[in-house]
Amino acid sequence: MTRYLSQTVARIAKTILLLLLLPLITSCLPANSGRATAGAKPIQNIGSDTLVNVALAWAEEYNRQHPDIQISVTGGGSGTGLAALINGTAKIANASRQIKPEERAAGEANGISPVEYVVARDAIAIVVHPGNPVDQLTIAQLSDIYRGEITNWREVGGENRPIVLLSRETNSGTHVYFLETVIRQNQKDSTALFSPDTLLLPSSEGISAEVRQNPNALGYDGLGYVTPDQKVLAVSLGPEGPYVLPTIQTVNDLSYPIARDLYMYTSGQPTGLVADYLSWILGPEAQTIVANLGFVPLQ
Amino acid sequence: MKKSSWWEFGIERAVQLAGVSAIVFVILILLFLIRESVPGFADVSPGELLGERWYPTEGRYGLLPLIAGSLLVVLGAAVMALPLGLATAIFVAEVSPRWAREVLKPLIEVLAGIPSVVLGFIGMLVLAPSVRILTGAPTGLTAFTGSLLLALMALPTIVSVAEDAIDAVPKSYRDGALALGATRWQTTWRVVLPAARSGILTAMMLGIGRAIGETMTVMMVTGNAARIPKRIGDLFYPVRTMTATIAAEMGEVAQASTHYHVLFVIGISLFLISFLINLAAAIVVFRQARRSERVLS
Fold first, then answer.
1. A81: chain B residues, CB-CB within 8 Å
2. Does A80 contact chain B (CB < 8 Å)?
3. Which of A30, A261, B60, B75 is least crowded, fewest Cβ atoms below 10 Å from its Cβ?
4. CA dihedral A277, A282, A285, A286 (to 10 degrees)
5. Which of chain A's residues have a Cβ under 8 Å away from the Cβ of B65?
6. Residues A151 and A244 in one domain
7. Residue A297 lies in a domain
8. With an 8 Å Cβ cutoff, is A193 touching chain B?
């Protein structure tokens, strides 16, 4: 419950709270009060909403161990983070997708060459209302549903109810990943799109709020954001199965079909503090935090 | 003597500067909008801009669903807020006793101080489920939910400004009407309201202006599905408004991309729509003012 609460707070007020409170809190720390001038400029870490809770937890733990190093974490989406990296306003960008060629080109044009690190793994969970009798769907069924070909739960073994499609906004890396992996079923030449009836919600909280209370709803979100009051569906690549529920184990052994890597990008080869921070993130201590937050740690 | 005239000169210039700067800012904003949106018109043909599909990450830039969505939500809000706001203003100014007015008016104005994100959050968690259950719509995140909240947000403005206008009508108007044998309702409806109409119209325009520009609440409760509402029943389905689209997507776009410029095309469309509403209101007020001047002279 506390984890859920902290997630909610982090998502809704993350920008405001961080901007307002971080300087306040850190200025209260006795370690900083005397010598805050030299290295006090925080490392800006902006990007993916999927990664924001993990990045926050990392930054807090790292700051606890190294009180003189401050890392300021902001969400906003993978595109936002990479744009900030390209503009030079962020040292580290969090992304739930790989950088696009045009973003890399824009960075090079600005004298910044992004360097990629895989920092954790994530699975996309398909969620429905707890009272929904449907337990499992194939990728093909999900594709039909999200393209608007199937519009009633009856057609996939559920009750006679309309299906209300929920999605993250188009600036979310989760949205792009879902479009490519599920709706287009990894076919590069496919031009299939989300049905125009799809509700595009600006936050994970929007999706979970709707899934919790609406028996018609079908949504998807990062495994780390699924709360116990949503029902997670088992997913299979083909109609003959096997249907697999997303767990840390099934993501690591690659049996769950909708899983991906999460990235951090640095502007150029990292040096100094940023390099130390990244090697700590890839180490066992930081990866335990990943697991505690419902994501999948690196092997 | 000389010192005070210098002082006066300074004050005069300061006031002048403040007045001119407001106009300059509006013109600068308009110029900025035009500069940023012109490449959008060049990159995307007018036929595409009037298309029915908004999916910018795949190069589909149809604005129709967004314009229709905004208009539907605002129209819904206006239908709810205007009569209710006017009725409340009449009640507070004409019917309720003086002490009740002193209590009611500040209470209504407090409503204006609630941040829109708070209203949106309440709407998402409380109002939307109720709307779904009461109307039987597939989801509670609908144009109607947005209209309800926008009406709530426009109400304080409408009530406050309209009440001031009604209250400013001289007491002699009411005394005259009552002395001629009119009932209280006839006095209010036929004498006081017509005398206060330009203030009331301003109240309505300010209220609608607040509704059409509102972003956060609308983004949280209307579902943001870019579908075109075609029937009146579509009020109970999700829509995507222009403001929510700009807010949701502006953070993501690469600067100077087609998507970026098309978002400014939306911005300038929004600017034009508000401008036309204000212009229409100004023309109505101006015409009525001239007519009443003729009657008086």
1. none
2. yes
3. A30
4. 70
5. 196
6. yes
7. no
8. yes
